Amino acid sequence: MGGVQVAGVGITPFGKHPGSLRDLMMTAGAAALKDAGRDTVDAIYVGTMNPEAFVGEGNVASGVADGLGLAAVPALRVETASSAGAAAVFAGYTAVASGYFQSVLVIGGEKMSHVPSPQVTGILGRVLDPCERAQGATMPALAAIVTRAFMQAFSVTRRDLARVAVKNHSHGSLNPDAQFQRPITLEEVMHSRVIADPLRLFDCAPISDGAAAVVLTADPASVRITGIAQGTDHVALRDRDSLVSFRATREAAARAFRMANRTPSDVQVAEVHDAFTSFELISVEDLGLFPPGRSCRALRSGAMTLGGRLPINPSGGLKARGHPIGATGLAQVVEIVRQLRGQAGDRQVEAAVGLAHSIGGLATGNWVTILERN
Amino acid sequence: MGGVQVAGVGITPFGKHPGSLRDLMMTAGAAALKDAGRDTVDAIYVGTMNPEAFVGEGNVASGVADGLGLAAVPALRVETASSAGAAAVFAGYTAVASGYFQSVLVIGGEKMSHVPSPQVTGILGRVLDPCERAQGATMPALAAIVTRAFMQAFSVTRRDLARVAVKNHSHGSLNPDAQFQRPITLEEVMHSRVIADPLRLFDCAPISDGAAAVVLTADPASVRITGIAQGTDHVALRDRDSLVSFRATREAAARAFRMANRTPSDVQVAEVHDAFTSFELISVEDLGLFPPGRSCRALRSGAMTLGGRLPINPSGGLKARGHPIGATGLAQVVEIVRQLRGQAGDRQVEAAVGLAHSIGGLATGNWVTILERN
Description:
2 copies of one chain form a homodimer. Chain A is globular and about 55 Å long. Chain A is about 40% helix and about 20% strand. Chain A has about 375 residues and is α/β, with parallel strands linked by helices. In chain A, α1 packs across α3. In chain A, a hairpin with a 2-residue loop joins β5 (about 195) and β6 (about 200). The first copy, chain A, starts with a strand and ends with a strand. Chain A has one domain: 3-Layer(aba) Sandwich (Peroxisomal Thiolase, Chain A, domain 1). At the A-B interface, α3, β3, α4 and β8 of A face α3, β3, α4 and β8 of B.
């Protein structure tokens, strides 16, 4: 087998939590250690986007290690905007692959729900290009531009976007850790308030608190990472080669598939970064899971739904599971590991090869991780 | 030779800069690439402590990569409070050691001088224990407690602390990149205003802007990293086993020396984290470079001065070179590489083995890096 293995996973319920970011991360970290049957590890990698702004704290890695009773264990924080959790998995991966550490605990988390939502939008906007931001751009506003271009290019309808939300809320209803566990209807999405036209409230991932964690080891376990890679792009949207596809995803996928010696057709379950409903459609095409412009047809046919050919976001995705930023990249890996282990309960997919896809910023630093059952 | 090599170094002058953090990091990064004779690398690792608070920006790694014309190159940010630069070196080190990347550009930087100094103290304080902070603790206040304990334990005088500042300003006067290039007198230090008794203004590293960078490769170069490690400790000072020694330094040093198969007596030049004058004395003892309680005698005898047995902080240290937080761990490595290459100008030390020591937070995440001439 060899390589870097996933020995344990842990996650908190996502949603509104009264506790601190540190508490959330400790809970997820302790759960992953317990799942791995371990008391300690050689190092802790923490993924979090902006605890400085959201909770006014720094030095989070030290605080989490100390809180876990592991103050003597090396601890680092890794960040690539909204894909910080996936980036922490990568940094932990290379440390184990190098032989420097034999085992690492990777924890991602964010605490945001206590911050008024206009302020959250402001904080999230800091990952955008400073010039575009100075002209009033926000994350939803730029996402809306991308969404409109994608809809026009591939005849995607407003109803199709709503179908993504309905699917993911349906999946979320089967996930006891999801922020939203109530199925929703197409009409609810279509009539929710406009955030940035054509995106409505139910097209956007919620503001969430939560944490998720994995233990990576050089020792044999039931699941291993066979491919992991980042792809990148210009920060400013105006510098991109396309508005209907993210280069950062395409490059991450190409690299990860090459590393894993796999092709998109090998993937049997995927967690995809649906911060906006349109992003799920764009991303499954960028990942090569569905042909360009054809995701919509797959969605309508039920191919992306649980029970379909290639279930996308069985956890409920960012949309229904929730999106505590730094936790998301880890939560995706936790879900794929549970799927591969056959521990996904009512949302179980029969799969030996799974994929997690995380978008950093407005697709400036995206990650693809391929996991396989041993 | 093998292992991870340093193929290029670059640094900006430290001090007050009108430009942006991104500009500073781009300047240092471009200089390191040029020094390495390269146009690109496989990845960029960015070390910065708190651009979120200091300059209101996120997603710094993507921004710097894009600014360098390397938007297609993977880019991550790494952070361990004030040792973020050293942590980024470590993350880049493991990535190259694993074979995942063949070459990485590691850039550290911070932009702080535009922020009023009480606000800087507030931002720096966020790395401390939340309970101690809630009771009014600041970084200088806690450093003063440590300093007083150290002075009492080892009969260190106020004049001894001043000697560290005088030595480092004298060294800084030989460093064209240093923030302060004017030698100072014992009397100037002794009569500077009190910051947190017994620490005075000239005992404290200044508020600085700047960036520094290195290119790490798997290919042969003139200098290699033979040891690199982190040590850690409880965040709260009240939980520590000692107030006159930092466990985080002792553990980092033990691990790094073991990895390099070296002992402290092999070290011929060292850059040490003198954020406060007392920290230099504590640290050279924790590193094993001088016996416990004996650093003061060595300082008085001139052993730590250029021309002495073991020059400490030939660059001027944080004290005189300046301390743009995220840049510091990198600047230390840049200085050691220059020393080992024989490119240190008027402050040249004859050395084949050098050490860099960086303190994260109030010594919760410290790094030791050992570099050797090939």
